[in-house]
Amino acid sequence: MAESKPSFALPPIKDNSIGWGPASHVLPEQFRDIPYAPYSKGDKLGRIADWSAPEGQKQDNRETSGRTGRQGFNRFNKDPYQSYGAGVSSAFIYTHNEDEASFSVVDNRSAAAKKASAIKAAGGQRNRPQKQQATRTGARTTNQRFGNQGGRFGRQQGQNRRRFGWKDYDKPQRMRDASVTVGPEWNVLDEIEFNRLAKLTYKVPASTEIASYGHINFYDKSYDRINTRNEKVLQHIDRSKYDYTTSDDPVMQQFMQENKGTVYATDSILALLMCAPRTVYPWDIVITRVDDKVILDKRDGGAFDYLTVNENTADPPMETDKENINSPGALSSEATFINSSFAAQVIDANEKIELENANAFISAEEQDATSSCGYRYKSFDLSNATSGDEEAEPVHLIVRTEVDAAVKTGANQEPTYLTVRALNEFDPTAQGSGGALSWRKALDSQRGAVVATEMKNNSAKLARWAVQAMLAGSEQLKIGYVSRANPKDSSRHVILGTQAYKPRDFMAQMNLSVANGWGIVKAVVDMCLLLAEGKYVLVKDPNKAILRVYSVPDDAFDEVDEDEEEEEEAAGAEEEEKEQPKAAQ
Fold it and tell me: Which terms in the Gene Ontology molecular function aspect does this entry carry (predicted)?
């Protein structure tokens, strides 16, 4: 039996040799009287039908655009993918001329209501053609009388438009770099959004002072009498202040050996965690898990020790070039220098309080060359036993806090502690000033407005200062107002005034919740206690309100330390080479 071979037959093709579309001789009888809408090969297929076009739109957009075979562009037709064939034929559009001709609108309103409606439609202006000439004459007279008032009003109107988001799309997008370079071997363990942190809460734990080191000078009250008419030059006083990280602190190392705590940190690190939802600029904290202890450190070579300027303003300073004194990096260095100089200048060097122990960071011969700073080591109980879990292990947080000065108050002249900080003004007319008032004009008469603007533009920085003062047990937060002597020169500054706040009241003005801050700390501590032994980094995303926890190698930052040591050795060798010719002479 012969095998049957498979066969394939092509379907018949009805070719239209005279144009596009189906040939007329192959159309079924029921479709012969329906018109056909031709199209161009360049047309793009989009919606099958467009029901959103207004009734008054032209039936044929070719009349508007002047193009043939394509749909025109107008304010109702911004989508390039319009309905297929919508702009080339009006054969399928149904018109109901007879219905429209027989339809009429009857307005039964009174004449007064019609007149009021007409005035409202015209923008509230009554059209009086007979008085147009008089109006023009009055406008010319007004301009001649008040000079350039019209131009001023026009500029004000433009400022209002820019203030409420006018041309926001034209502003360059801020893309900041991370505070630390994320290595390829780093693993992301968790991501925490700021909106989750803002919902945390924890009761304020009990604190106990376990040791104190250093000395505290008294505050010079003459600086409270400074104002804009009696300003004082900011001096550069060469006194060192030691701010070692947690693991490099010899007192902390001793506490770790004695197992006095579970978590170890400094007040600056703890304040940053408490105020994390307010931060915008990137930062990072190194977490080390050793045995049953957690150590929170700042990273060597990072931007942790530098203060930010106008971090929270809607339009922060922009990084344009390295030579610009109003760039974020230059302003940060300037603010850090101002704070250290102001804290060293406003103290009385002749009167001081010696704490329980001498400064542990320097020798006895170098005590007089250091700035006024008292280190108070406190223990905070973060255990869960208070919530009813008696079997929970105790968790004690050891924090090193700092006190800058002391002042005598009350009838008995008892000393109370101060935390001294300084706000700086760079140029109220420069980009990134955040709409701040000129301090020389408004600091004496409008102190409240100046403080409110600083709370808005520097919310994260001021919140951290208030938390540090609270942790240290300071009775007052003394803030100085330091401005440039010349807005174009960032090397010379003057003190325009000072102001004292109680830390709790200051935090209440900023709507800063202490319970929320401790809730964030408690959540971070609990997360760290669940980690395995090793090194981790808590990184704030440079462009998003997110915290990320990375697992890093144990030697992740050792190369940075070696590079810094090599740079220090090279700098020391250069100084020795310069000193040798002088000694020979």
Answer: mRNA cap binding; translation initiation factor activity
